[in-house]
Amino acid sequence: MKIEASAKSVRISPRKARLVVNEVRGLSVIQAESILQFMNKKGAEIVLKVVRSAAANAVHNSNLAKKDLIVSEISVNEGFTIKRFMPRAFGRATPIRKRTSHIRVVLAETAEAKQAREAGKKTVKKAAAEKNAEAPKAEIVAEKKTADAKAKAAGKETKNSSTAKAKETTKESK
Known about the structure:
Elements: E1 2-10, H1 14-24, H2 29-38, H3 42-62, E2 69-87, E3 93-109, H4 111-154, H5 159-173
Antiparallel strand pairs: 1-3, 2-3
């Protein structure tokens, strides 16, 4: 199961954000958080927020444990560029480009956690199937008993009650 989170139009250059992102790709969420907390880069704080958001999505929406998640995909794409200018000598101006980034984080379960979860689902499904198989049988037996009781009250013989009487008479005759 893949869990995703993103931050759009973040005011950091994509080139600088990629330096941070490349350090945490493929790590577990807990390792990535600890690395990002102590990294001395502006982008580390921004990427940390997105990783924590993705982890919170996984825990809240998909009921996954934070310790079982890894950063499977993380990417930084270029957003829009804010254009400004800087006045220079002799009446000239040079452009300033304030770049933005789109950061996308995709978390996945570790293989061991996925196998354990699927094994748990299989046992739950088997138990539910067995329970469902037993439930109709019990309902049918209960319906037959109520039908026999109603028939006896009305003074009629049912198929089940007549066969039961026949069995009783054969046992008595032996």
